[in-house]
Amino acid sequence: MRHLLLLLIIALSFGQEKNLPQVNLKDLKNKTQNTNSLIEGKLTLINFWATYCVPCRKEMKHLNRINATYAEQDVQVVGVAIDDSRTVGRVKSMVKSQKLNYTILLDTEQKLYKNFNTSAMPFSILVDPKGQILWEHTGYIPGDETKMEAEIKKALKNEPEG
Fold it and tell me: Do the strands 133-138 and 75-81 form a parallel or antiparallel pair, or are they unpaired?
């Protein structure tokens, strides 16, 4: 009986919906952006990265392509740099050198990043237009972009027509 109860508790905890925390972050033009208004109406892949993270740089070209490929289907990529005050100055030049074509936000105090119980990077989440987190992924190895696209396609298939 105890095992059954434990299984039930575990099943219920996994079934809980997780929503994107509402946080205000600055963009590269020093304008405040709210996470909820940013995702409104779009399936959003949020990618946490830092200038000193080598796997993050390798992943960026794929994120650029994903952003361009799915833009017409109301899908967007948002990059969140978690560099602190010592390294945040490098973010703009990294964005320029990587030719990033998606929104970049700064989370220097890790107000958003800390919500996800991870210290690894890159770290990505897929969020539906209502703010529900559909998928999380830690790290990057070549081929991970294929998993990301599969999750995006799956979410697009499950979206009710608007």
Answer: unpaired
Stretch 20-44: mean pLDDT: 94
d(CA 72, CA 67): 9
Domain hosting 85: range is: 18-158
CATH of the domain at 85: 3.40.30.10
Per the domain annotation, does 8 fall within a domain?
Answer: no
Q: Rounded distance, CA 17 to CA 109, Å?
A: 26
Residue 67 vs residues 11, 18, 92, 151: alpha-carbon distances, Å: 34, 24, 19, 14
Which pLDDT tens digit goes with each residue over 100-159? 999 999 999 999 999 998 889 999 999 999 999 999 999 999 999 999 999 999 999 986
Tell me how far apart the alpha carbons of residues 42 and 154 are, in angstroms, rounded to a whole number: 14
Closest CA relative to residue 113, chosen from 84, 141, 71, 144: 84
CA angle at residue 37 from 35 to 41, to 5 degrees? 115
Q: Positive or negative CA dihedral for 52, 102, 162, 131?
A: positive
- pTM higher than 0.85, yes or no? yes
